[in-house]
């Protein structure tokens, strides 16, 4: 689609070219996203309102129902919180946004996320093995680094079998930082392996929901990795396990210095 703007006097012509198909596709993606988010938000909201009403119309007088329904209300509120947090992360990628690279102590970042996941790790009797030089540092935006580790590790926990294993491996090469998160869980069928990076795509919706999944985690990880010029590779076999390998380029020292100046100002 082209617009011609002519100027008879000067004889000059300005041509503005639009790729309407691209613009329409982007608009449609936005509409789909808003539709999906609204749909996902509705479920916990309906549930919170429903249980609150039931309590008010008498169930609060029964201590057992009171306790059970309040638990559900709390659980659904947490789910709303997760959905909103993930939606904000996704929205960040819709616009160019500033990143603030800093030196990250990789081992302590992994430790921090594992501490957060500890109750679920214990509940599922999982063993976690971490391989990597504890002194390793890597320059990256800390919030984005946290998003990568948190989402991959959370999945390794919630899609694992009881008594399963998780292996986290990290290290630096000349040009890259590499992170491997492997589990001995339920695995991902071959047909779904490409699709799990799509927003809201879930192999088993019920299992994801039950464990507080939003269906946005891997799309967030992929967006961060791609923007950083890295890659994420998935190997998985049903009933055997899943391995995600993330490779992120190390920035030359000069670029880091520039970025940090930007971040500080
Ligand atoms: P969710 O919040 O549902 O976990 P993600 O975007 O993180 O959303 O993952 C999308 C889907 O990919 C999950 O619902 C699950 O079906 C599948 N998946 C992701 N990680 C794993 C894993 N480690 N093992 C098995 N399935 C996984």
TrEMBL record:
Catalytic reactions on record: ATP + protein L-histidine = ADP + protein N-phospho-L-histidine
Domain annotation Histidine kinase: ranges: 36-252
EC assignment: 2.7.13.3
GO biological processes: cellular response to phosphate starvation
Any one annotated GO CC term: plasma membrane
Organism taxonomic ancestry: Bacteria, Bacillati, Bacillota, Bacilli, Lactobacillales
Protein name: histidine kinase
GO molecular function, one term: phosphorelay sensor kinase activity
Keywords: Kinase, Membrane, Phosphoprotein, Transferase, Transmembrane, Transmembrane helix, Two-component regulatory system
Main location: membrane
Keyword S-adenosyl-L-methionine listed: no
Subcellular location: Membrane
Superkingdom, natural source: Bacteria
């Amino acid at each position: 689609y082209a617009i011609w703007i002519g100027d008879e006097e000067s004889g000059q012509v300005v041509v503005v070219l639009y790729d309407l198909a691209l613009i329409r596709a982007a608009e449609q993606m936005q509409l789909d996203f808003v539709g999906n988010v609204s749909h996902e938000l509705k479920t916990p909201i309906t549930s919170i309102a429903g249980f609150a009403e039931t309590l008010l119309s008498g169930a609060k007088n029964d201590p057992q129902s009171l306790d059970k329904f309040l638990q559900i209300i709390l659980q659904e509120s947490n789910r709303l919180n997760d959905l909103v947090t993930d939606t904000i992360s996704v929205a960040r990628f819709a616009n160019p946004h500033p990143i603030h690279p800093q030196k990250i102590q990789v081992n302590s970042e992994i430790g921090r996320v594992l501490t957060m996941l500890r109750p679920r790790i214990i509940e599922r009797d999982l063993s976690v093995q971490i391989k990597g030089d504890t002194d390793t540092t890597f320059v990256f935006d800390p919030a984005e680094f946290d998003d990568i580790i948190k989402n991959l590790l959370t999945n390794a926990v919630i899609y694992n079998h009881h008594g399963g294993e998780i292996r986290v491996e990290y290290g630096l090469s000349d040009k890259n930082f590499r992170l491997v998160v492997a589990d001995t869980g339920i695995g991902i069928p071959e047909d779904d392996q490409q699709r799990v990076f799509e927003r809201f795509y879930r192999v088993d919706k019920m299992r994801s929901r039950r464990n507080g999944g939003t269906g946005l985690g891997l799309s967030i990880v992929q967006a961060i990795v791609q923007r950083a010029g890295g890659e994420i590779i998935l190997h998985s076999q049903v009933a055997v396990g899943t391995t995600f390998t993330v490779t992120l380029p190390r920035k030359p020292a000069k670029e880091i210095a520039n970025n940090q100046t930007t971040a500080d100002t």
